[in-house]
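debug: dumping io for the single-chain case to check the tokenizer round-trip. Nothing else runs in this session.
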Amino acid sequence: MSPRGLQTPQIALAAVLALLPMLAAAFAPEPWRARVPRLPRWLQIAAPALLCVPYALTAQAAGRVGPVWLAVYALLPALIAWMAAQAGQADPEQHGNWRDFLLLAGLGLAVDLRWLEPAWPPGLTAMGKILLLDAGIYGFLGVRQLRGVGFDLRLCLRDVWHGLREFALYAPLAVPLGLALHFLHFHAVWPSPLHALIAYLFTFFFIAVPEELFFRGWVQNLLERRMGRTAALILTAALFGLAHWNKRTASFNWQYVLLAALAGIFYGRAWRAGRRVGASAITHATVDTVWSLWLR
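debug: decoded output
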């Protein structure tokens, strides 16, 4: 999300409202999860329609309110909540229902293929991704009450240990491979420590956490119930790699896919070591920060 895009009070308020659901679920997971099931069922389904408010504020500030997009951002979160409720009723043991995987496929494709980006002004498309994440969090964690996700960003030393350990195992494999494929290149000038810290924090919260919640907390978590730990780890890593096929290019970027899939193995290992999204997000953010500041 571009800082220039937050120069109006309306858009700043929209950004805060978009981030609040994710931060509430991440830093106060127990009370947040406990409140949603207490709501009447109709309100559980209707409540996430309020996610259209950040879109409305942003679009109005940019002078491009679209009634169709407003309806999408009101109805889509409610539809996700309804399907999550249906999955919960059909699969109370949480073995993984077809509705779960349909929701994940829809969310993943919407982000990867940028279906909803035309709704947003330039520089603010990341807010649309955050709203989709909010809708998924509400559906899977609030309504579905999916267990074993580990979406708790109150980090502990064990999260740091697992996250950095997997980075230390991944880097000796990825760096030589990336250099050999001419995908990685050493930078002649290194950034200042403050620049590196800011880059790491931005990457952690806006890239690593959303992607790790989706791929490890939801996809790998549900696949484990269907095919076991090892197969779920490998398949999730492959899907994570394929999600990068169109990054930094208009064609199939097979080098990126290969290195991302390899990284996905280590991200998945970090997550399942304690079933904590924070741990795999540390691995992910460290890899991305080192890559962007020193090797891209």
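debug: round-trip ok. The chain has a mean pLDDT of 93.
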